[in-house]
């Protein structure tokens, strides 16, 4: 759908309109959740243990292509039946190649399509690669940003061609990693070396442009057993806001702001250790009461600050998943056997922190893409492109007088523009 917009004396109010329309794009019906809550590595009965009720909660699920294992369809059916929305985090392998290092990324994309086909009605979100700038990404070295993005685009094209509604997301970078810089980034040398990963993330976003459905990231807090990640700096949990701001600076156009998925957050900021007498890993310090609750409060505050009527919205945190719920080898971080973490998660859920609108109406839509100017000069004709999808049960028809109109959070700003 393409429209020409004529600016009127209500020019400033157009900001309200696009804020609302942007948020409506997050409403993906049965495929999504309007809440920011998530876990990593679901296991049976998580719904009852966490008392999520009728809320939809995200779960991040790992998959290695080189394992040769088919996707566990029964697992995905069960977690969906409990009200969890899966995000499949895919790597080529977990040891030395997060994406193909040689050969054809198109072939790898075809392989993923074959893997996903039996689960196409169960999985709508897929993250490609992990910590591409780390030494574990490519046989002891990082993968250059351009190499990763070129491969990502080839993979995404294959997946989107087969499953047009699937959201294909750029993988998370390794924080504070000095091994793989990008000379095109704007950040200069500092003693903490965080400029290296910042440049790498900047380049990923810049080179991806509009050819991604979002960005994944990680955030680690809990340094010195601190239970309040809200007061962390960029070395702690607040690294999520730093990364989000980097993405916004790389993609300033309002047409290509993308949602962000925090695939992993936890309290192991002081490091990871092996639990005595086991092969299980855990944090150096025990879980500080209130950490989960405060982390979600911090994310909610960040999201709310993005809703500024004076400017177009930037990137927005769509979900954050606790590392981990139940994953062999990481029992020290697990939630399934820790009532303190469970209670904090339940308390956070009770706050109803949302990433979007919530609608059960038979009429609902999403904006899949839009290109709009940041400002409109009075009297000028501006080019606007908005692509919309019907995601509810009712068919749009002329007889039902379905119309494309303007709206906003404030009633007095409704239907004031010419389109």
Question: How would you describe the overall organization of this protein?
Answer:
With 419 residues, the protein is α/β, with parallel strands linked by helices. 26% of the residues lie in helices and 18% in strands. The strands form three sheets. Strands 6-5-4-3-2-11-8-7 form an eight-stranded parallel beta sheet, with helices on one face. Strands 1-13-12 form a three-stranded antiparallel beta sheet, covered by helices on one side. Helix 8 runs parallel beside helix 9 (339-350). The longest helix is centred in the middle third of the chain and has 18 residues, at 145-162.
Q: Which characteristics define this entry?
A:
419 residues; alpha/beta; eight-stranded parallel sheet; three-stranded antiparallel sheet; 9 helices; 13 strands; 18% strand
Write the layout of secondary structure elements.
Blueprint: E1 2-6, H1 14-24, E2 37-40, H2 46-50, E3 57-64, H3 73-81, E4 84-91, H4 105-116, E5 125-128, H5 145-162, E6 167-170, H6 194-208, E7 215-220, H7 239-250, E8 260-266, E9 272-274, E10 281-283, H8 291-306, E11 317-322, H9 339-350, E12 365-371, E13 381-390
Parallel strand pairs: 2-3, 2-11, 3-4, 4-5, 5-6, 7-8, 8-11
Antiparallel strand pairs: 1-13, 9-10, 12-13
């Amino acid at each position: 759908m393409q429209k020409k917009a004529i600016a009127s004396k209500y020019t400033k109010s157009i900001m309200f309109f696009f804020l609302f329309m942007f948020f409506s794009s997050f409403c993906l019906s049965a495929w999504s959740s309007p809440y920011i809550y998530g876990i990593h590595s679901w296991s049976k009965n998580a719904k009852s243990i966490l008392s999520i009720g009728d809320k939809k909660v995200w779960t991040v699920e790992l998959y290695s292509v080189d394992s040769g294992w088919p996707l566990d369809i029964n697992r995905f059916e069960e977690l969906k039946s409990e009200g969890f929305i899966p995000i499949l985090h895919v790597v080529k392998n977990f040891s030395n190649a997060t994406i193909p290092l040689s050969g054809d990324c198109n072939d790898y994309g075809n392989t993923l399509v074959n893997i996903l086909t039996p689960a196409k009605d169960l999985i709508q979100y897929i993250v490609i690669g992990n910590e591409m700038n780390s030494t574990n990404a490519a046989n002891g070295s990082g993968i250059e940003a351009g190499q990763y993005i070129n491969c990502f685009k080839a993979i995404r094209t294959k997946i989107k061609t087969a499953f047009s509604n699937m959201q294909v997301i750029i993988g998370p970078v390794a924080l504070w990693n000095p091994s793989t810089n990008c000379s095109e980034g704007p950040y200069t040398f500092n003693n903490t070396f965080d400029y290296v990963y910042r440049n790498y993330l900047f380049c990923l976003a810049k080179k991806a442009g509009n050819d991604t459905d979002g960005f994944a990231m990680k955030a680690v807090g809990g340094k010195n057993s601190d239970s309040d990640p809200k007061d962390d700096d960029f070395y702690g949990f607040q690294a999520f806001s730093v990364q989000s701001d980097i993405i916004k600076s790389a993609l300033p156009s309002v047409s290509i702001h993308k949602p962000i998925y925090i695939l992993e957050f936890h309290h192991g900021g002081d490091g990871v250790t092996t639990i005595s007498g086991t092969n299980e890993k855990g944090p150096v310090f025990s879980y500080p009461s209130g950490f989960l609750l405060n982390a979600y409060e911090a994310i909610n505050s960040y999201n709310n600050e993005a809703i500024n009527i004076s400017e177009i919205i930037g990137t927005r945190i769509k979900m954050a998943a606790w590392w981990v719920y139940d994953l062999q080898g990481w029992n020290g971080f697990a939630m399934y056997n820790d009532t303190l973490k469970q209670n904090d998660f339940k308390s956070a859920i009770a706050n109803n922190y949302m990433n979007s609108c919530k609608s059960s109406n038979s009429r609902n839509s999403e904006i899949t893409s839009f290109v709009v100017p940041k400002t409109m000069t009075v009297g000028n004709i501006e080019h606007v492109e908005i692509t919309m999808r019907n995601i509810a049960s009712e068919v749009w028809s002329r007889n039902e007088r379905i119309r494309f109109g303007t709206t906003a959070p404030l009633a007095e700003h409704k239907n004031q523009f010419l389109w």
